[in-house]
Amino acid sequence: EKELEGIVFPAKVEPFWQQPGKVALYPFNMNGLIVIFVGAFGLTMLSFFLFLLGGVLSVITNAAGLRIFAQRIMPVFILTGSLYILAYMAKIIRKTSKGDMDFPDWPEFADFWDSIVRNGLLVLTAAAISFFPAILVIIFISPSSLGGTVLLLFFFLIGSPYFSMAVLAAIKQDAFSACINFPLILQASLKIKKHYFKSLIALWAFGFIGSILYFILVRSFFPVIGLSLFWVVAIYFTLIEGYILGNIFYINQKNLVEIEQGR
Q1: Can you spell out the DSSP letters for 82-105?
Q2: Cα–Cα distance between 40 and 32 in angstroms, integer?
Q3: DSSP secondary-structure letter at 115?
Q4: Is 262 helix (H, G, I), strand (E, B) or coil?
Q5: What is the pLDDT of residues 204-249, one digit of tens each?
Q6: How far apart, in whole angstroms, are the C-alpha atoms of residue 159 and residue 155?
């Protein structure tokens, strides 16, 4: 008994669907709230600045097409500005996939390339491969239109099964090539299909809510307020999705050895 004094044994990690309250409150600590609200403010300002820039350029050059081009290319700049959020998601997946369900510290700026840029690009690469048709919709069709929103939801629905496992593979192997290992990703998804489907339901719910919020808030409120609310929700869901994917890996790690080892 004396030898066991002071030793803290890790609590049993339950599947995310058995602890919805804990999952929902996961980002609600100092680090999480700062990331959510500071990130939302930064992305809102970037979005609004790019929108204004497109309008100014179209007036100066008297070319409406230039304004449309600026609005279409805006998501590229926004994704670049989102690398820190995506790096945080990667750090959450690494932490929770080892059974540590505490919210992690911030990605370190001192190791900017490996901690932020590389980790963010791993998630972004998986997303680019999985949601390539949706990216085309964002670039060539306004996502704030009803038709654009419906198309985004459709391509998000069909791309998300690949995305979730591709993210896990890329982060656990720390390799961009893992995102295009189609046989491995398909095999791993089928091995844990019941648990994996539950994680997809959560991801689909996040995507649906995010798309509807974007369509409603940006049109119904002053753009800055609508965009701010949208980004708050989007970043919150991103952090939770990291928790869910890490949790899925941990409770199925015996069946997902190949995902970590890349074979």
Answers
A1: THHHHHHHHHHHHHHTTT--SPPP
A2: 12
A3: I
A4: coil
A5: 888 888 877 777 776 666 667 777 888 899 899 999 999 999 999 9
A6: 6
Is the confidence at residue 64, as pLDDT, over 90?
A: no
Residue 2: is it exposed, middle or buried by C-beta count within 10 angstroms (0-12/13-18/19+)?
exposed
Helix (H, G, I), strand (E, B) or coil at 25: coil
Strand, coil or helix: 12: coil
Is residue 119 within 8 A of residue 86, CB to CB? The reply is yes
In the structure, what pLDDT confidence band is assigned to residue 33 with cuts at 50, 70 and 90?
A: very high
DSSP letter at 15?
Answer: P
Sequence-distant (≥ 6) Cβ neighbours of residue 29 within 8 angstroms: 103
Give the closest residue to 130 by CA, choosing from 106, 112, 103, 155.
Answer: 155
| Whole-angstrom distance, CA of residue 239 vs CA of residue 190 | 25
For residue 110, the model assigns a pLDDT of 76
Predicted confidence band of residue 3 (pLDDT cuts 50, 70, 90): low
